[in-house]
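Researcher: Please predict.
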Amino acid sequence: MTLQQLKYALEIADCGSMNEAAKRLFISQPSLSENMKELEQEIGLQIFLRSNRGIVITPEGEEFLGYARQVNEQYGLLRAKYIEKQTKEKFSVSMQHYTFAVKAFVETVKAAGMDRYEFAAHETTTYDVMENVKNFKSELGVLYLNDFNEKVMMKIIREKGLEFVELFSCDTYVYLSAEHPLADAETISMEELDAYPCLSFDQGKNHSLYLAEEMKSTYDYKRLIKANDRATLLNLMIGLNAYTLCSGIICEELNGSDYRAVPLKESEKMRIGYVKRKGAKISHIGEIYIAELEKYRMKIM
């Protein structure tokens, strides 16, 4: 097993195609296939299932690739420090689509400065938030638990060698355009919302009601639109009088004043927190980010 073979395997997984991976790696497809065959024979398991439609990662392959990403990440850090003589520290966070988590990241960058640190923020699916922390792509991952998803989510969190730390809890709000017919209501019921499209973030191949970013994921929505980008979701709110369900913590500094958060009558508690690798010490910059997130505890009290 070589570091090059691990990099090849990771590129194939990222591309979802042997041919596309070969192009990116600037090697021939037969050579790449032979390298993977040798690697699979050496470790005694099949990483990829091959077909005319591309490749599928086996469950055993998923676990192997998780370790491979850790090795590749650690090698990158070693090379940066001792070969390329880079002195900047890195900080990365993954998050569900929360404006307040982005705002906390902005304040963290301002506080730490970019002279010493190299930053990365990933707004992504619920599953990938956890996967990114497991695979060292991010130090922290911001997400929520509630009574419906907690059992399943905690099982995934434990299986990935992570732990969840709660920051604060909040009620459920309806997030919609300031021009929406219901925008000035004191509270809004699910029945009143039936006449309007509900927006939901697409969870991709790991779609599950337990991984949904929005509350009330089991509700029988009459109109449902999925999106995978926060900017698109905001545009759909304005263009279609659509709405989504959220924590009620909005940041006008980032999203502007064209939106409202109205309490939902059938509110349920969201427990916002972060996942980290179990037993791992949080970095100095990670502590700054957590402190910025904790400021929202006071805003909802």
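Model: The chain has a mean pLDDT of 90.
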